[in-house]
Amino acid sequence: MTQPFRALEDQDEPALLRDQFRQLLRYRALLASGVVLGLLGGGWLALSGEENYTSTGEVVVRSAVSDPFAAGASADKGINIGSERQTAVSDTVGTLAVGSLARQGDRVEVGTLLSGLQVTNPPNTLVLRFSYTGRTPALAKARAEALADAYLEIRRQRTEDSIANMVDGYRAQLKPLTEQRDQLAEQAGTSNDVTSARANLVVSISELSRKISELRALDTTPGYLTKKPVAPTDPTGAGLPLLLGLGGVVGLALGLLLSWVRLVFDPAVRSTRELVRSLGAPLLGTLPRERASAGALLAIGRSGSRLAEEYRAVAFRLAYDPSFAQRRRLLVTAPRGDNAAAAAAAVNLAAAFAEMGRDVLLVEADLRTPSLARDLGPAVQGAGPRWASGSERAWPSDSRMNVDVPGSGAFTLIAGRRTDNVPRALTSAPVGRIVAEGDRPGAVVIVLAPPVLSYADAVALIDRVEGVVVVCDPREVHRSDLERIREIIGSAGGSVLGALLHPGRSRYERRARKKAGRRRTGGGRSGSATGRDDGGRGGREHTGDPAETLGLRTFDPTAGHR
User: Fold this and answer.
1) Are 329 and 445 in contact (CB under 8 A)?
2) At CB < 8 A and 24+ separation, what contacts does 433-441 make?
3) Distance (Å, whole) CA 57 – CA 493
4) Domain spans of the chain?
5) Pick from 445, 97, 63: nearest CA to 218
6) Buried (b) or exposed (e) across 396-421, using 16+ Cβ within 10 A?
7) CATH architecture assignment, domain 53-227
8) What angle do CA 359, 360, 363 make, to 5 degrees?
């Protein structure tokens, strides 16, 4: 059974992504918290923010032309729309717009005015879109229009100034030419050279005069306000529904991020794939949660029980495993903490093997807190062998109990007993003889040991049992614990046959179990008033009540019943 788990390593990338996504969904509290925070943030932004209004106007920029209707005339000649956009948001335009707004009664600083302006240029056009955002619709409309008019006025002034400068330059060139022409006119008819020079001057004067006339005839219109700003009717920005939607999306992303961080730093086993890789053994099964089984130790024998069917499936899988079939000895243990799930697994696996017709011997090797004798019924006490102390009651005892599973068969139970010297008891010759009973044909020996990481009891038995089944809750066991268990069992000469997962107990179930334990022990006393040995926890004598024995019958094997 060491080969099947390797198939999990060959999963494709989509399967791994699905597995990681399912792992993130484990942290539903973080996901819900992120969504709630996002919705609260979106609602706060929608309700606390001031309502703003945006008015938009569009200006078509054109260059100065002498005849806009002439063939080949181009309105975009020499226009750099990027430079024009920078001019539109400059302080020069803002200063002129501030003066215009002041005459209308709206006094505002240049910086404040330009802070609400946004000028954009649609692609492949000579259009500048002036958008102004203000507190009221009228304010947005007035300031957008003032800024657009100020830009057109600045551009018109610059064009007229350029024309005036060019005309002055041409006139400065024309004045000396005119004086030379007049001087040559007084010398008319004297020589051919004078006549030729005078003619050249007339041509130059005519050319300069033509250029001046063309400049004066230019159409200096800088552009047109094709779309006048109007007062908006609705406020701009995202509304409450949109902000709530965006907040929910952002909150979900935040929740996923927090879940991912929690997943990265979570020491617990995050998936079956990690459990198999850390333990180095396959997954034998996952036990379902049954409400009817709350408080009941034995599930085998109940009709229609999904839990019983899962135990049967695990038993069949172990029965056909070559490493287990050769030795027929099994050690059941938990990583650490509560050993109740391991005890239930050991009892039900013993009952399942008994159903197969095997001669099953269940040995409770928990000598610190034994509980099977109490949970399954009164044990038949017998005088066991004595150890170093003459008055010490040792384990295992000579007497055995047969546990009858209604409708399924019976198995033999050797219940645990409190022992002062636990290591000596577990490594004694009687324990070796009991475990060696698994060598008989058709026999199966199941040993219930305390948590392997809490005590060294399981390690003391591994060399004789070899096959180990680890029963754990995947939400509580850590990856480092599983890796340590694999190393401990391997170094002790054993092998992990697989893992059996069980659903963790809820807080209510743990509390009810503690209360039931206190009621059994009579408020915490360490022994009963009659001096009867009940596993070291104390308790009342058995009265034959079916509710106390959990539906099981325990009787003396000398009665001839098997």
Assistant:
1) yes
2) 434/361, 434/363, 434/396, 435/329, 435/363, 435/461, 435/464, 435/465, 436/464, 437/361, 438/327, 438/328, 438/329, 438/361, 439/328, 440/359
3) 86
4) 53-227, 272-557
5) 63
6) bbebbbbbbbeebbbbbbbbbbbbeb
7) 2-Layer Sandwich (3.30)
8) 145
Question: pLDDT digit string (tens) for 502-524?
Answer: 876 555 455 555 555 555 444 43
Judge if 53-227 and 272-557 fold alike in CATH terms: no
- Cβ atoms 381, 438 nearer than 8 A: no
Q: Are 467 and 324 spatial neighbours (Cβ–Cβ below 8 Å)?
A: yes
Spatial CA neighbour of 486 closest among 318, 276, 324: 276
Q: Which residue has the tokens 């005459």?
A: 103
φ, ψ of residue 308 in degrees (nearest 5):
-65, -40
CA pair distance 527, 537, nearest whole angstrom? 6
**Residue 495, SS3 per DSSP:** strand
Backbone angles phi, psi at 30, to 5 degrees: -65, -40
Question: In the structure encoding, which two tokens stand for residue 321, read together?
Answer: 């495993």
Q: How far apart are CA 529 and CA 467, in angstroms?
A: 41
Read off the pLDDT of residues 528-559 as tens digits, 9 standing for 90 and up: 323 333 333 333 333 333 333 333 333 343 33
pLDDT band at 128 (very low <50, low <70, confident <90, very high): very high
Which residue, chain included where needed, has tokens 């200063």?
Answer: 95
Rg (CA), the chain: 48
Superfamily of domain 272-557 in CATH is P-loop containing nucleotide triphosphate hydrolases (3.40.50.300)
Cis bond leading into 137, ω under 30°? no
